[in-house]
## 1
Amino acid sequence: EGLQAILHNMKSPPIKIVGVANHPDELTRLTPFYFDILILDIGIFSNLGLDTIQEIKKAKPNVKIVVLTTYSDPSMVRDSFLKGVDGYLLKTGQIIELFECIEDVFQNKTFLGEGVRLSPEK
């Protein structure tokens, strides 16, 4: 609800929330709807988070996916980008960073938030 309130006040690009999911099954019910961006906390989906990202990108290749999470493990960050994430930031960041991330991914840029590091490839 807090994130919804923050996004509701975003002016550029304007955000309209079309759904909220607290479980992967709920997320798959959203796929018939049109949406430009998905803000996802991979932590709420435990091990399913990365697979969920890949499934969404397969079903909706043009959708932008932003991970907003507490997980800063560099290998998790790398794996997220390999699965199709466009932006990755930590919940501990400033609200302005979320706005910057959304703007960047809409401009087809990759966003790596403050304090987020990628691990080298395996």
## 2
Amino acid sequence: MKAILLAGGKGTRLRPLTIHTPKPIVPIFDRPFLHYQLDLLKRVPEIDEVILSLNYQPRRIEELFGDGGDSGLSIKYVVEPAPLGTAGAVRYAGESLRESVVVFNGDVLTEVDLAAVIALHRERKAKATIVLTPVDNPSAYGLVETDAAGNIQRFLEKPKPDEITCETINAGIYVLEPETFERIPKDMPWSIERSFFPSLIERDETFVAYVDRGYWIDIGTPEKYMQVHRDVMDGRFHAAPFAGAASPASITWVAPGARVEDGAILEGPCFIDDATIVKAGARIGPYSVIGRHCHIEERAVVEGSIVWANTRISQEAVVRGSILGRHCHIGRNATIQNGVVLGDKSVITDHSRCTGMSHQPLATSHRP
């Protein structure tokens, strides 16, 4: 069985982080995001190959994952000649497929039981099966209505309060029959949500829902990207190095090759990657993630922030609730706070102040 992973987007909602780093390989702690999706696919032994549908900076992704040997799954790369939309990408990547295929959106992190989804698809002899997830605020999403038997009835985009009839939304995970791909026009943009799925309903074909009430999040915004790290550190999503800990929220995880000097203060949960130096008097506060080869100088403070590799935070600088890309330099006594997102190689000079627009609490994942 094959899986198609739709990873061709430009990650515009995560810019400037994704200008030089395609969204599938933005780091979650010390691993590219795509690894977490491959981990989920590996739980289904019959999935023997993953087809990565790419468009934006495909070489960066292929250089990192190769033929998939290191990930335990065979990986095939298909590069769209131009953006084809979600349905167009599926047809282009799955042109030669003749058996049921799992399709995954490239920005979804979940612990759904894929084997159970596939089993339901086969049991119902469905043309398509879609995973749905419940949300607290359905008006911000497109709703998916089902009948009592789990058949898809309707898609409703951004409903008004008086139009909300359910709480379930498209989770971006499908099992599809390739025989249906012929209705997708070749070589032109086509939406799986707005065109392909409605065609199944119009033709009265078997189109069923699998409702998953476990963990699910779309990492495509800075707020959600930060939330994923918090969820791992709080034990809401199970991933290394915090998985299995009795009290993950108390862990201060320091890679063996990192150096934390005497007098530095670490407050859990936090994560410090390999070859990073934290100088005496610096403080790493809760929910901070420091990448490889970073340098946190004396009396610098990092709280609730994500710092990518090779970044230097100078003496007495403060970084709170923000994301810093690779190779950034934060000058002495500078302050970065309230949701600032800096792209790679950003330089903030001494004594500067950068404050984001967001004063809202971090977004929460849909389910604990």
## 3
Amino acid sequence: MKIAISQPTYFPWQGYFALIDYVDEFVFLENIQFNKRSWQQRNRIMNNQKEIFLTMPVKTKGRFTQNICEVEIDNLEQNKKKNISLIKNAYLKCKYFDCYFEDFKKILSKNHIKLADLNKELIMHICKILNINTIITNDKNFQLSSKRDEYLKDICLMKNCNNYISTIGSKE
């Protein structure tokens, strides 16, 4: 069994979905510390031939050690509208805009309190569009007390995985 484990990121790049499609099971990694200004809360999009950051601000004051699954979106209503507007302005003239924008707008308009919940819904929706049917689970449901350097290994052992697949960015 091939397994991949990764944090739920905000509008992930195409390689993220290639990874999900390649494995038998994909595990969202949320029981680890959140890093501010990471791909969990932002990504780059193209707008007028320029890269801009699409960011979902989060509450971090006094929450330095929070896990990804605990991170709350900051100023929810204002930031939902801002992100929807940025996406619309950047991609309005694209060929398939009308096919996909309304669904993404619905997801972004929901009252997600937790950033990870928003990211997972976006990822699951894109998997559906791409017809990716990989089993997707979540480490929040696992009862592991492993130390940081053993955590991924213990997930693989628990899942009876014989092939752990990771991205080049996770090499270390």
